[in-house]
């Protein structure tokens, strides 16, 4: 059962998502909120598998809330709900650890697939969005000197640790391509649990925080081809 929290400042959106998602046998709606404060409170208490989070909300917006949510509950996957796919808030949310975004106009099949994808460790970032995110992070790096982070390097590429194995590099590449743990396991003929162990090792060796950072890491090191247009 996938435990889900819904957070949106529009009551009609909250109610619609609740009704639609409750019809799925493998989904359980465990909490519903109307703003970023509610999101933090609910995730703190419930530790859901997936959070559907509106990007533009009062008190605390989705981008800011994402950073706090990933700190409080790293295992919770966050899907940003938005009206426009080029919203700067969406890119900042991805930078802060969201697994991707979903347009509010998406149908039930797209919504259900997205939830199952991020719950299995996948992402919802298209190459185009990933490129925009990468450019945004590079621009932010020029504006200020941030803490050590793959998002804001001082050079075009970050150093690949010498102790990363060939299999780990393959997994980094697959994560950059948006594959889920299940899909990676199939590609490498491994168990999903083994893939998760490899990812934990990758995070430790690269000093990265989460899967989204690994995806950006893959792009920065030329392991994934992206559309530069």
From TrEMBL:
Keywords: DNA-binding, Phosphoprotein, Transcription, Transcription regulation. This is Response regulator transcription factor. Residues 3-119 form the Response regulatory domain. Coiled coil: none annotated. One of its GO terms (molecular function) is DNA binding. Pfam families: GerE (PF00196), Response_reg (PF00072). It comes from the Bacteria. The modification 4-aspartylphosphate is found at residue 54. One of its GO terms (biological process) is phosphorelay signal transduction system. PANTHER family: TRANSCRIPTIONAL REGULATORY PROTEIN NARL-RELATED (PTHR43214:SF24), TWO-COMPONENT RESPONSE REGULATOR (PTHR43214). Residues 157-222 form the HTH luxR-type domain.
């Amino acid at each position: 059962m996938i435990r889900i929290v819904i957070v949106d400042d529009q009551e009609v959106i909250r109610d619609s998502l609740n009704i639609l998602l409750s019809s799925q046998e493998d989904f359980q709606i465990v909490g519903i909120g109307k703003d970023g404060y509610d999101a933090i409170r609910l995730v703190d208490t419930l530790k859901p598998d997936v959070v559907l989070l509106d990007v533009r909300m009062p008190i605390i917006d989705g981008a800011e809330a994402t950073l706090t949510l990933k700190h409080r509950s790293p295992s919770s996957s966050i899907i940003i709900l938005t009206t426009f796919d080029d919203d700067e808030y969406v890119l900042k949310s991805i930078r802060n650890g969201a697994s991707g975004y979903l347009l509010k106009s998406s149908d039930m099949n797209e919504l259900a697939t997205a939830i199952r994808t991020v719950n299995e460790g996948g992402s919802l970032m298209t190459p185009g969005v990933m490129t925009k995110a990468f450019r945004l992070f590079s621009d932010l790096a020029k504006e200020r000197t941030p803490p050590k982070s793959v998002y804001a390097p001082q050079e075009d590429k970050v150093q690949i640790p010498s102790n990363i194995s060939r299999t780990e590099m393959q997994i980094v590449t697959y994560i950059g391509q948006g594959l889920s743990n299940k899909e990676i396991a199939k590609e490498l003929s491994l168990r999903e649990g083994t893939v998760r162990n490899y990812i934990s090792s990758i995070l430790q060796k690269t000093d990265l925080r989460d899967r989204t950072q690994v995806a950006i890491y893959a792009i920065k090191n030329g392991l994934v081809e992206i559309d530069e247009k």
